[in-house]
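Contributing new records

If you add data, match the layout below exactly. Sequence lines come first and carry their own label; structure lines follow with theirs. Keep one chain per record. Anything else will be rejected by the validation script.
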Amino acid sequence: MFNRIREDIACVFDRDPAARGYFEVLTTYPGVHAVLLHRLSYRLWHWGLKWLSRLISSFSRWITGIEIHPAAKLGRHFFIDHGMGVVIGETAEIGDNCTLYHGVTLGGTSWDKGKRHPTLGNNVVVGAGAKVLGPVHLGEGARVGSNAVVVKDVPAGATVVGIPGRIVSTAVEKSPQLEQRQAFAKKIGFDAYGMSQEMPDPVANAITRLLDHVHVMDSQMENMCQAIKHLGMELPDYELPDLGPCDIESDHPAEENKAK
């Protein structure tokens, strides 16, 4: 029991950079309070003390703003960040190392008894305000974007956004095209951290397509230079300058402000 409590507190430091000490986490984090109280109510529920279990669950909701049914199954290293408005239904099952943010609902879609709430695999992250409804399964390492509504199964490693939830990326091995793009971005001094073609950000998608386009143009220019040199003509060699964040900003912000 005490080992489980230590685990519930220790996992906070891996996922919340604002956490500064064990005493602070134990006394001021409502997500930790809700999980610890649920550990107690869960045991009482399975010992047959259901009224007492529900009483502790209601008390936990009153002081934390987080509602977890005593029968819900929570894995190890489970963390609820901020927590206000989180609802976890009776037949919900959550794997190890999962993280929920505030406003998340793991709810049901029917009044029938039996399995009617979601099952989350290990290492799942559900963003703020997201709703996962019905007896759906979220595979290991799945990610649910903020305010998404998920009503279908999500494969392992996938990212889901939108209403209704749609898969925008899946965990795939590095492709030659991706490695080529990253190498070319590094060559011209552009930081392509976190970019992929499957990202929902249209700006990021546009930049990756521009990188592919510029790479083809660069390759064609190199072939043309080689052909010209083969004909006996000498061409000067130029080094590409490195690009940085300041290069896309104005050198004279004051003048821009005047123009506005």
